[in-house]
TrEMBL record:
Belongs to the actin family. ARP4 subfamily. Involved in several developmental processes including organization of plant organs, flowering time, anther development, flower senescence and fertility, probably by regulating the chromatin structure. It comes from the Eukaryota. It is found in: Cytoplasm; Nucleus. GO terms for biological process: chromatin remodeling; regulation of transcription by RNA polymerase II. This is Actin-related protein 4.
Length: 445
């Protein structure tokens, strides 16, 4: 139906932590950058807009443009997208995320993220490429229509397809039926996929993802009196060869959200370097004398991290641990019903039809950045063997290659969009013009 081999499709997976984009048929995304953006509000000139804002009605979203222009009736914010733009500290720059619980809440930011992916990173014209977008299993029909509308109206793409994250992960591993455990930045989702369709009624989610674990790590370090200095707050000056002195820099106009973002980048790296899932349930006394692991911070301090290496990953399996992390108590009070990974898996499988439960137990797929933590697969398998029914053969599958585990959703999209048999599945611009935007619900189940 479409130009076969000449034009390759573009696959985009906008996650809560990073956005992955690249060409279908390749084995890894070309562009990977944070899905948060820096935003600076610029002065409004016109009183009409001011009075609108004061009376509590937001100016029409079309009035929010990306850059400052001479027209004097628009509220403006300038958005900075991409790791380089975010790494540069600017006065009054807030760090905003377009997603809340995996669902888009700010379309203006999403639009800018896509724009950055197409024009600055992939260097393509979206008019010439069909687009395959990954979406969360919980995406609402309104969200999907909005996505389609933006793609066809603004980017004028020739064709579009929306595919569920869990389905793409199961494609990446070559299975049509699997239980996908996707632990990303913002949350952890357990979704059963049967013959290429997500069984919506059995999807289980938990707000514990990579960013939450980073937060726990940060609070735990703070409680020990360690302050993480963001990279912009100091410079290193060489006194003698190989000896450096740290000079603190003061930027009074840095926003709290940017400071936090910069600290999280560092803490997240600490977490990825030293943490691993413990072999059994975490126990204060057993882990009291584990050997320390050292980590050098950007400002030259060396941290010694002991029991936290195991305690923090174990939150995924045993959320009641949150109560013993200083500063996180309020979270466990406000979310008393959070379940650990093994419970979520078993609960999800029990909500499925009896006929496919065995097959799901034997193909549990791990995906997402948080799932690439050391020992996570072994620990999940062990816990499930203890809790699952006797007859079930439990098998947890995870790619040995952590890149593949991190990008499994994107890789599944890349495989799908480059299949010959998939080419007649696209929702084309002609169909959009003929049937309207609601037709996407039928074309992309």
């Amino acid at each position: 139906m479409y130009g076969g081999d000449e034009v390759s499709a573009i696959v985009i997976d906008l996650g809560s932590h990073t956005c992955k984009a690249g060409y279908a048929g390749e084995d890894a995304p070309k562009a990977v950058f944070p899905s948060v953006v820096g935003s600076i509000d610029q002065m409004e000139v016109d009183d009409a807009v001011k009075s609108e804002r004061d009376s509590g009605t937001a100016p029409d979203s079309k009035n929010i443009v990306k850059t400052f222009d001479s027209d004097k009736t628009k509220t403006k914010r300038k958005l900075y997208v991409g790791s380089q733009a975010l790494g540069y500290r600017r006065d009054h720059m807030e760090v905003l995320s377009p997603l809340k619980d995996g669902v888009v809440v700010d379309w203006d930011i999403v639009d800018n993220i896509w724009d950055h992916a197409f024009r600055e990173r992939l260097l393509i014209d979206p008019k010439e490429h069909p687009m395959l977008l990954a979406e969360p299993s919980s995406n609402s029909p309104q969200q999907r229509e909005r996505t389609a509308e933006l793609m066809f109206e603004k980017y004028k793409v020739p064709a579009l397809f929306l595919a569920k994250n869990a389905v793409l992960t199961s494609f990446a591993s070559g299975r049509a039926t699997a239980l996908v455990v996707d632990s990303g930045g913002g949350s952890t989702t357990v979704a059963p996929v049967h013959d290429g369709y997500v069984l919506q009624k059995a999807v289980a989610t938990s707000p514990i993802g990579g960013e939450f674990l980073t937060e726990c790590m940060m609070k735990s370090l703070e409680s020990k009196g360690i302050t993480i200095k963001p990279r912009f707050s100091f410079k290193r000056k060489e006194i003698r060869q190989g000896e450096f002195q740290i000079v603190d820099l003061d930027f009074p106009n840095t926003t709290e959200s940017y400071k936090l973002y910069s600290q999280r980048v560092i803490v997240s790296d600490i977490k990825e370097c030293v943490c691993r899932a413990p072999d059994a349930l975490y126990d204060e006394t057993a882990y009291a004398n584990v050997p320390m692991t050292s980590y050098e911070l950007p400002d030259g301090q060396t941290l010694e991290i002991g029991a936290d290496r195991f305690k923090i990953p174990d939150v995924l399996f045993n959320p009641s641990l949150i109560q013993i992390i200083p500063g996180m108590e309020s979270f466990s009070e406000s979310n008393p019903t959070i379940r650990g990974l093994p419970q979520m898996v078993i609960e999800s499988i029990n909500k499925c039809d009896v006929d496919i439960r065995r097959e799901l137990f034997s193909s549990i797929l791990l995906a997402g950045g948080t799932a690439s933590m050391q020992q996570l697969k072994e620990r999940l398998e062990k816990d499930l063997l203890e809790e699952s029914p006797q007859a079930a053969r439990v098998k947890v599958l995870a790619s040995g290659n952590t890149t593949e585990r991190r990008f499994s959703v994107w890789i599944g999209g890349s495989i799908l969009a480059s299949l010959g048999s998939f080419q007649q599945m696209w929702f084309s611009k002609a169909e959009y013009e003929e049937h309207g935007v609601s037709y996407i619900q039928r074309k992309c189940p």
